[in-house]
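Session log. Operator J.P. requested a structure for one protein chain; no other inputs attached. Running the standard single-chain path with token output.
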Amino acid sequence: MRIAISARERDLDSSIDRRFEKAKFYVIIDLDNSMGYEILANPLAQQLHTSGILLAQHLINLGVNAVFTGECDPNTSRVFKTAGVKVNCRTNGTVKDILAEFNKGVLFPLKSEQIRIQNP
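Structure written below.
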């Protein structure tokens, strides 16, 4: 499973960026590969329109299964939903905080219900 976290800085101690479309970086973590990760700069951060849809498609193409960010616009959310990617609302904390909570099996969805993830 691969997760993406919108981040303000280029490291795991970074605060989460609340704006999916305008985040400076995305931390992509491969939970099936010994927690290996990569940090991608957002090439569309300065684009005015459609950046959310293009970024969503890019993350889907990278094999991301879940996204942690502050907020997504409705069109971006639909792209993720259609692809089966879970979008999870998180407005504070660091990338490390999210990883710790994810490993406990708790996600924070944009909807009010919680989703439980079973660890293999």
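Operator note: Residues 108-120 have pLDDT under 50 and may be disordered.
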